[in-house]
Amino acid sequence: MFSGKGRHPGQVVTGYILADEGYDVWMGNQRGNTYARKHIKYSPEDGEFWNFSIDEHAKYDTPDSIDFVLNITGQSQLYYVGFSQGNMILYAFLSENPEYNKIKVVLSLGPTAWLGHIKSPPLRLLAPFTSEAQFLFSVLGHKEFLPNDFITELFAQTACKVDVVRSICSNIYFLISGYDFSQLNESRLDVYFSHFPAGTSTKNFIHVLQLVNWKNFQKFDYGPLENLKRYKQLQPPKYDCNKIKTPIAIFWSLNDLLANPKDVDILRNCLPNVIADYQVPLEKWGHLDFIFAKETKKYVYDELLRILKSI
Fold first, then answer.
1. Residue 41 and residue 29 in contact, taking contact as beta carbons nearer than 8 Å
2. What does pTM read for this prediction?
3. Using N-to-C axis directions, what is the helix angle for 62-73 and 85-96, rounded to 10°?
4. Of 61, 256, 263, 289, which one is the catalytic site residue?
5. Given phi > 0 = left and psi -120 to 50 = alpha, else beta, which region is 72?
6. pLDDT, tens digit, for every residue of 5-36?
7. What CA–CA distance (Å, rounded) separates 203 from 34?
């Protein structure tokens, strides 16, 4: 099973690599993205549809997705390959369900949980205004953030295809991920931006900004009064990854602007069962390189497959 924040073209490539090795591959979609917009009660036009953050992803979506795969396949366990927020969500779930034994091993690519040292300029610049944004959206309502809509598609199919202005797309890519021109296939930028970003809830994005500000791995902060009502305490509870028993292999890099090495170090020291600690041996390897880079197999998936086969 492969989980990330939405489904990326790179995720599909990953699926092919694992499928070629004989693995049964299931790709999860986070609710609210381009491919996961149905609900038994609400439509994407309803504010309640978007009333979710990392906490709901962890509490409901992750175990339901795993149970679905296991019920269909008849297996008792699966391997979980997570990318970026797909790791954070699983860590949150496992920290509150330490006896959960349906995952044989977690393989974490670009693992995020602590975000206090994040260097991605968009998130770093927006983080100081989290409180103002939270107040504004509490008045206007939480809805979709960064949807993959007509404007995004038009941008991808025009700017990202024209040689003269293609640098705009590559610079946006590098601002998010970290500069690694040698691994970027510029001819595929229109494909990448046609699927990325894939949309999430504004509340989910605010939760990420809170993690940047508070420098803790914790639940959504509703403010003291609402926290007291929901959590029976003034501050949101922290996720305690010391409780996680599932074996975890982490794959990280020095030039990752989102999963900063200092934050990965905090995570590493918190997880009690790290079975592999792999630093990508390419100094400029960035966050999105884990799924989009030209040589992902050479620098990441050969090692990932080696670990899978050794377990």
1. no
2. 0.86
3. 90
4. 256
5. alpha
6. 444 444 556 788 999 999 999 998 888 888 88
7. 17
**Residue pLDDT, tens place only, 185-232:** 766 666 666 666 677 888 999 999 999 999 999 999 999 999 999 999
Q: Is 64 a catalytic residue?
A: no
Write phi, then psi, for 40 (nearest 5 degrees). -70, -15
Q: Which of 249, 309, 247 is nearest to 278 (CA)?
A: 249
Q: Burial-class residue 71 by CB neighbours within 10 Å (0-12, 13-18, 19+).
A: exposed
Active-site option among 8, 195, 207, 287: 287
Q: Which of 84, 108, 120, 201 is catalytic?
A: 84
Percent of residues, the chain, with pLDDT higher than 70: 77
113 burial level (CB within 10 Å; 0-12, 13-18, 19+) = buried
Dig out the tokens for 309 from the structure.
């086969």
Contact 14, 296 (CB under 8 A): yes
Cis peptide bond prior to 197, omega within 30° of 0: yes
| Nearest CA-CA partner of 195 in 47, 10, 57, 30 | 10
Say whether 84 is catalytic.
yes
Q: Where would I find the H helices in the chain? A: 9-20, 54-56, 62-73, 85-96, 121-126, 130-140, 150-158, 166-177, 189-195, 202-214, 224-231, 261-270, 289-292, 296, 302-310
- For residue 86, give the nearest of 122, 62, 115 by alpha carbon: 62
256 is catalytic: yes
pLDDT in tens, 129-182: 777 666 656 655 567 776 666 555 555 455 566 665 556 566 665 666 666 667
Identify whether the C-beta of residue 147 lies closer than 8 Å to the C-beta of residue 201. Answer: no
- Residues 97 and 90: beta-carbon distance below 8 Å: no
Which amino acid makes up residue 156? A
